């Protein structure tokens, strides 16, 4: 498979969108089924993409996002809108993925590289711009250490400001910037090496 450089993501999410989602979360605190459904629908796609990238295993995305929303709905009555609902949900998703990784740390991965690629292709939304770029990016992110991957996904893919990312990660903003810079350097090195190997295969003489 040819690696493609991922397109630059949108760096900032409109504040009006986050405000609307926060209003949905506040409305859902009453437990009204329609309000809860609207809140879940508003954030489901973002949360699923986030946990898939963060966990490094798209096979687990559905289970992880469901657990994320279960935890959120159990705590929703305590949400007061001091931060955006999206930031609050990203923090819950982070802890959900971390708990899953800890519990699975002793279990060997069962999928080989070909199965991994098939799973990624199956979980990406087809017919959307950047579909193939998304496949390559998910593969690249899986090679990053967890902390760097998390900082990169939050800030570069989901457009979370560094200040908010620092609060979600529970570390200084300088640490977030450092992790993102190192993640970028690592991704660039992998891309360059993949392209170098691709050129080598293309230029290699055919001995048949």
Give a summary of the structure in a few sentences.
With 208 residues, the chain is mainly alpha-helical. Helices cover 70% and strands 0% of the residues.
What do these coordinates show?
- Belongs to the sigma-70 factor family. ECF subfamily.
- GO terms for molecular function: DNA binding; sigma factor activity.
- Keywords: Sigma factor, Transcription, Transcription regulation.
- This protein has helices spanning 15-28, 33-55, 61-75, 85-104, 113-123, 131-142, 146-157, 162-169, 173-203.
- The chain has 9 helices and no strands.
- The chain has one domain (15-203): Rna Polymerase Sigma Factor, Chain: A, CATH 1.10.1740.10.
- The two termini are 23 Å apart.
- Helix 2 packs across helix 3 and helix 4 (85-104) crosses helix 8 (162-169).
- It is elongated.
- It is 70% helix and 0% strand.
- With 208 residues, the chain is mostly helical.
SSE layout and pairing:
Layout lengths: L14 H14 L4 H23 L5 H15 L9 H20 L8 H11 L7 H12 L3 H12 L4 H8 L3 H31 L5
List keywords for this structure.
single chain; 208 residues; mainly alpha; Rna Polymerase Sigma Factor, Chain: A; 9 helices; 0% strand
**Proportion of beta-strand residues:** under 5%
The CATH homologous superfamily name equals: RNA polymerase sigma factor, region 2, helix turn helix motif
Order of helices and strands: HHHHHHHHH
Outline, from the CA principal axes? elongated
Poorly predicted residue ranges: 1-11, 106-135
Q: What is the number of strand segments?
A: 0
CATH class: Mainly Alpha
Number of helices: 9
Overall tally of structural domains: 1
| Coarse structural class | mainly alpha
Helix content estimate: over 70%
The main sheet comes to: none
End-to-end Cα distance: 23 Å
* CATH domain fold name: Rna Polymerase Sigma Factor, Chain: A
Return the average pLDDT rounded to an integer: 76
């Amino acid at each position: 498979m040819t690696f493609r450089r991922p397109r630059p993501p949108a760096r900032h999410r409109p504040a009006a969108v986050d405000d609307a989602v926060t209003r949905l979360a506040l409305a859902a605190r009453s437990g009204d089924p329609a309000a809860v459904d609207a809140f879940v629908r508003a954030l489901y796609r973002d949360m699923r993409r986030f946990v898939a990238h963060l966990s490094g295993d798209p096979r687990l995305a559905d289970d992880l996002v469901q657990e994320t929303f279960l935890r959120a709905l159990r705590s929703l009555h305590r949400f007061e809108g001091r931060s955006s609902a999206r930031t609050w949900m990203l923090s819950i998703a982070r802890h959900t993925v971390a708990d899953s990784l800890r519990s699975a740390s002793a279990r060997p991965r069962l999928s080989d590289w070909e199965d991994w690629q098939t799973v990624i292709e199956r979980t990406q939304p087809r017919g959307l711009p950047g579909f193939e770029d998304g496949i390559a990016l998910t593969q690249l992110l899986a090679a990053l250490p967890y902390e760097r991957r998390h900082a990169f996904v939050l800030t570069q893919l989901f457009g979370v400001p560094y200040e908010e990312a620092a609060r979600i990660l529970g570390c200084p903003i300088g640490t977030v910037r450092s992790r993102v810079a190192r993640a970028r350097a690592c991704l660039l090195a992998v891309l360059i090496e993949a392209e170098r190997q691709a050129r080598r295969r293309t230029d290699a003489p055919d001995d048949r």
